[in-house]
Amino acid sequence: MRPSHGGGQGVKFTGPRRVQPSDVALPDGYRIEAVASGLTFPTGVAFDDSGTPYVVESGYSYGERWTTPRLVRVEPGGRVAVVATGGRNGPWNGVAYGHGAFWVAEGGELEGGRILRISRDGKIDRVVEGLPSLGDHHTDGPAIGSDGWIYFGQGTATNSAVVGEDNAKFGWLPRHPEFHDIPCKDVTLAGRNYESSDPVHPGGAKVRTGAYSPFGTPTAAGAVVRGKVPCNGAILRVRQEGGAPELVAWGFRNPFGLAFAPDGTLYVAENGYDDRGSRPVHGAADVIWAVKPGAWYGWPDFSAGRRLDEGDSFDPPGKPKPEPVLSPAPGQPPQPVAALGVHSSSNGIDFSRSEGFGHRGELFVAQFGDMAPNAGKTLNPVGYRVKRLNVETGISDDFATNRGPVAGPASRIGNGGLERPVAVRFDPAGTALYVVDFGVMTMGPQGPAPQPETGVLWRITRTGRASR
Amino acid sequence: MILEKNGRRKRAERIAILSAAPLLAGLFVLVGCGSARRSEPIAGPFHAATPEIERGQRAFMQYCNPCHTGGEASFAPALNNKPAPGFLIKLQVRAGLGAMPRFPQSVISPRELDNIVAYLKAIRHHKPKAGEVHG
């Protein structure tokens, strides 16, 4: 059996990061340049009324690496000026600009998720706080709707609804042993429980844990878990002046990227299941969805509209089939717009709106790249590029990818191209696509090893007639 | 009786795929040496020459793309640089092999599978531009 060969595995990064735009392949008629470099864990870009780009640096990365969350303005020449800084409650996952202010999703690894309003002079107000964001996945987005509301994603605490040893590896289970997923509406459990060692009390007896329950708490068939908002695995929205968040749709795993299409439809990029933890799921795609208000999208018992126990598609090799933890299912999920690469970590998204750039109406997707072997085995690197997707046909293709016989992050293939694209955003004119590159994150024996000051903001523009 | 027939068919498919496995493995080793990269930045835009290939591309995106992204080396092995004949591709899709799941007719119809094979054969000939795949 072939071992895993993820893009971050076996990479010895000594730095500094080399940045070489010519190492990135693009379709004919486009060019790429580095706008700013030396950023630490950047996750999003937005533009003010004058078209000046601003970047958020997350302040926290997988691997339990803590820095200072920042909103920085990118000056001509690539220098950055700090507009606002946050506390020890990252990751700041994405930024949007509208209503004269910046809107930041504060991931809330220590104190819970928040939506922040940051004025142009750096004053921070909490629009929403107390979001259930202490686990694997955080508060994400945001995006501003034509209705003026701020839309955002709230990821799940766990991989597939069951707290297990994998959550201790993330770092949060010893901090918050009571934390678990919260459904948005009432759900009825099938009563399946999963045995694991107890990393909270090493050396102790094995424990059994059920879905939507604290670690070590078994569940019974027919038990009803009461839903409430805010909840996990959901898209929520809040008025710009604050107030209680409202549920838009639920049943997502990690709805990281949100964008409104030119016709006003909300699209979301969802990170699919990992092959890890007490209830591993094999071969689950990352998914692009068109969001129907009120709908349930299938987590934790469906992937991309298919039941996890249907056939053998999602059976992890050598491990039990992922049987449903809900009975009955809350509904039948919609069909996805597209299923993207397993473990590709398809994150930030945006639509092209201009013939000046081309591909008008198509969705661009930043793929952070796999986190193998922690997220599961992969035979080759997955992601590490920017995709474009025709949302009508479901056909996707690369738009920006490193040159070479095989794909992968620059640190692995030895060039100066892309590392881990995490967000994309068109400038207000629609003629330049900015790509936020998180920087180098290798995967070592201790898990993720993110490298500060290796993030890059790239800009892609059209130089001539595109090939289609 | 139907269950028994289905069971026999599945066993026959398993036997067939196991018989074909050495041939498939040989193809992977002997011929899987060229780059499988076929995406637009590397190989230029792909234009489906026939409606069958176009339908096959859509079906590929729906069923195959998550594991064999773009037909390149990704979560699962590359497909674009393997000259497997159509019958072997169909056999593997129906019966699965190793970590690859089975896709019965209830999931991928015979026509869809024909289209996928047509697309896979077409994408093989969509070769990288000069200089793009040398590391």
What does this entry show, briefly?
The complex is a heterodimer of chains A (468) and B (135). By secondary structure, chain A is mainly beta.
Features:
heterodimer, A: 468 residues, mainly beta, 5-stranded antiparallel sheet, 4-stranded antiparallel sheet, 2 helices, 35 strands, globular, B: 135 residues, mainly alpha, 5 helices, disordered N terminus
Structural class of chain B: mainly alpha
Quick check: average pLDDT of chain A?
96
Overall shape of chain B: it is: globular
Mean pLDDT of chain B: 82
Please report the total strand number of chain B as a whole number: 0
Tell me the fraction of residues in β-strands of chain A, as a range: 35-45%
**End-to-end C-alpha gap of chain A:** 42 Å
Helix content of chain A: under 10%
Globular, elongated, flat, extended or rod-shaped: what is the shape of chain A? Answer: globular
Count of beta strands of chain A: 35
Largest sheet of chain B: none
Report the total helices of chain B.
5
Task: Specify which chain pair forms the largest interface.
Answer: A-B, 47 and 36 residues
Q: What is the rounded Rg of chain A?
A: 21 Å
Spans of at least 5 consecutive residues with low confidence of chain A: none
Describe this protein's structure.
The complex is a heterodimer of chains A (468) and B (135). In chain A, the strands form eleven sheets. Chain A has a five-stranded antiparallel sheet with strand order 1-30-29-28-27, with no helix packed on it. Chain A has two helices and 35 strands. The mean pLDDT of chain A is 96. Chain A has 468 residues and is mostly beta strands. With 135 residues, chain B is mostly helical. Chain B contains five helices and no strands. The radius of gyration of chain B is 16 Å and the shape is globular. Residues 1-7 of chain B have low confidence and may be disordered. Chain A binds chain B through residues 25-28, 282-286, 304, 311-313, 315, 317, 338-344, 370, 378-382, 393-401, 403-407, 413-415, 467-468, and chain B through 35, 37, 39-42, 44-46, 57-58, 61-62, 65-67, 69-70, 72-78, 96, 99, 101-104, 107, 132-135.
